[in-house]
Amino acid sequence: MDFKPLISAAAARIAPHIQRTPVLATTGFGLPYEIELKLEQLQHTGNFKARGAFNTLLSGPVPQAGVVAASGGNHGAAVAYAAQVLGHSAHIFVPEMAGPAKIALIKRTGAALTVVKGEYANAAEAAAVYEAASGAMQIHPYDAPATVAGQGTCMAEWEEQGLMADTVLIAVGGGGLIAGALGWLAGARKVVAVEPETSCALHSALAHGAPCDVNVSGVAANALGARKVGQICFDLAQDHGLQSVLVADAAITKAQQALWQERRLLVEPAGAAALAALMSGAYTPAKGERVAVLLCGANIAPDPLG
């Protein structure tokens, strides 16, 4: 599938409803080179997923029953926010591991919320039952063309803002964000996938030759804890020979702390995972290689000012 025209159309469609998030060129973090940062944690609801949510809701009719979404937290908050802005009802299903900050964020939108025991997969099962019973429209968090096209607008926007990097590092859960980036760049720049060692659906899929179930745990599991990577992401990753690297929880936490201590940038663990790959040496650029990092989420649990 050629995603570039879909992403261009999505960018025009969602422009009135999203933030154009800033970029920053900076040294520091113990690195001997400058990096570019995209501060997508400043997006509505504190993460990039508002892009895909708005694109889906604006791409066609929404039934009277409204929308339903299963989420580790961030996608649910984005869908709830977009539905509120556009005047639709929403029912969000999240696992207990979503955490109090993300649950509170969803509640503030006025959406109906069901907290399910277990992990994201359990919330997805409950959402599917609700969809069948109610007639609500399901908005998939990562493995749907409208979602991927919406997330791809982040990379399109970054290039408009003057991205200079040869290589972009992006954290991966289910794969919607990195799929959008791959769909937009179409091989024009190198993209590196970064996953926690204990939540690595894409890395495992690439090793096995197909999406497969994995166990998920760790500090970033409520954002990067998809049990199976999306087929769209997997296909694009194979098409472009995507490199995948893994980072330990300790490296993620160290990067999260460094972003706050050195640049006063407050991100959740998932938002710091891509930087952790550089700081830990999981990815080492070649001499002269220009690198960029996408900071993707800011919903820390517990909310530091909650």
Number of strands: 10
Arrangement of strands in the largest sheet: 1-2-10-7-8-9
Give me the number of helical elements. 12
SS-derived structural category: alpha/beta
Helix content: 40-55%
Q: Can you tell me the number of structural domains?
A: 2
Average of the residue pLDDT scores: 95
The main β sheet shows up as: 6 strands, mixed
Indicate the CATH topology of the largest domain: Rossmann fold
Q: Strand content of the residues, in percent?
A: 15-25%
* Low confidence ranges: none
Order of helices and strands: HEEHEHEHEHEHEHEHHHEHHE
The radius of gyration over CA amounts to 18 Å
Shape: globular
Query: Can you tell me the CATH class of the largest domain?
Result: Alpha Beta
Give the end-to-end Cα distance, rounded to a whole number of Å: 43 Å
Any guess at the CATH architecture of the largest domain? 3-Layer(aba) Sandwich
